[in-house]
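Ligand-bound model needed. alpha-D-glucopyranose.
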Amino acid sequence: MPNSMKKFAHALPKAICITLVFMVFSLHLIAQKQTNPRAQWFVDERFGMFIHWGVYSGAEGYWKGEKHRDDNDYAEWIFYRNRIEKDEYLTLLERFDWAAIDPEQWVILAKKSGMKYVTLTAKHHDGFALWDSQVSEYDLGNFTRPKRDIVKELSIACQKHGLKLGLYYSHWVDWEHEYGWDHTKEIYPITADQYDIYWQEKVIPQMRELLTNYGPIGLMWFDMWINHSESIVTKAQLEQLKALIRELQPDCLVNSRLGLSIEEDPDIDFRTLGDNQLGSHKLDYPWQSPATVAHSWGYHARDADWQSTTALLQALVGNVSLNGNYMLNIGPKSNGEVPFEIEQRMVQMGKWLHVNGEAIYGCGGFDLDKDLHDWGKITFKVLENGRAQLFLHVFRWPYHQGLTLTGVRGKPELVYALADKSKSPLGFTHDEVQTKINIPALPPDPYVSVIVLEYHQEPSIVSGLVAPTVDHGYSLTFKNRLSAAGQSLLVDKERRGTIPEHITIDGRYRSSWKIFVDAPKTLSIDASYSFEGQPSQSKIVLHAAAQTIDQLIVPNGQTVGEPKQDWHIPNFTAHRLGNIRFPKAGIYEISMDLETVKMDVLRFQWLWLAEAETE
Ligand code: GLC
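Prediction:
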């Protein structure tokens, strides 16, 4: 039980206490298989705030009238990019409005936004400590009167509002210390012994301060985005640092940007993906995407590519559906103010989480094939009593038709929209591996609507199926196929995507798929391909439900991608192959043989199966 809960349980009558205990435990859910017990809170809480704030916040992406010298425009890199001298850099502090700066406001915003922890850049690459450090003169205590200690202020605010405190500490890169790493040292090297002076006289003692003076630290967030073997930092130095954390704060988590991967050292608590990189597949160990609302981390006056609230929520949901976490950044200004565009979106996310948080906190991925449903993503949770909940996050509302879940064998006991407080049951049918839900005509939420399916236990699944799409058909591609035989070459999309991703076939090729058909019906079948040869004996042959369709490949020439640029590209068009009758409900295998005459290359894209109009 969290400490805050314990404190207040004393004052309550027994019956209420029992209910509270039950609530706390019933919120505790599926553990990701490879999760260290100290990281359980992290995989339960899923959503946190990153705070990039420091001396660079006063520059706003400019120095002496010149914009930041890198199109990547990370405002916190201005010191290095614009080759600023380290004492002059601190003149930026004169722009800070110390009376207005109040870290508690960041914590209040995090809380309002449904975030459960905050991670502050205690020391970024510029080497400047945002606390009153006795180890280095390059710190806030030395440059503020009265002294300010932002780490302390933030830790007090976090404790007050019940959020965990995480600290970012740039261990590898430090532009201030003579022997800290900056990339220029690739040209003018320092010795390992010199680097160790920096390590022993700045990193270790500063980390000791952070781990001793600021109460419980939920996580330490390091930032070396290459493996230690490629850097000046030695594995022994990293292990020394990690041992210090384990000694002083045994519950504190450590991320993989320490420079050690989880594969190399399973004692690392979570993996950090690349900046703004979202998950692409499910992982059993904890992981996290650091993300920005626009682009820069530190405040940059020219940041303009603000993502929508919907896009941010979809990113959060997408990560959770793959067992991942999401940490979204604020880059406050030199008066502490959070840019309006960020604050607005975060508050909207908080409102969404207030209604739909059950589908995020304590949830993880469900084992259905990734990207199976084109309507959205699924998160999943098993409650203490063994009951299971599937949350369908609908990004694309299927107007005028039901919402179809494919691949789950179990039948739900109850289905409702999460936005509906009364949980009025939605009608549904369940056949073998398909649940069809009668959803309301309009989505109940303006951002992402969530439909809950409750089961008395974790339902079993059938993998390898192709689910029907929102536009009511089956799209069979080389990505969702069951098997393939023969030679083919995968060609990525080209020329701005005007040439779609496809496979080329020269010879014989066979591929198969599995679909579920919910009633006797006839499906029409189209094939999208491009063929520039002569009319020939090349063939496409389809087998399904004991029927065969056999058709010659038709040449379809080229098309124009962009006018007046000789942008002539292969023409991918759909060819109706014919109809197949599926005599009863059930799972069917569809197989396709392509037989091309030598040298006549066929570019194959997809098959599209849809209910035939003529029945
Ligand atoms: C990169 C950048 C840094 C930023 C971080 C956030 O490592 O160097 O400026 O703090 O990503 O993920």
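The chain has a mean pLDDT of 93.
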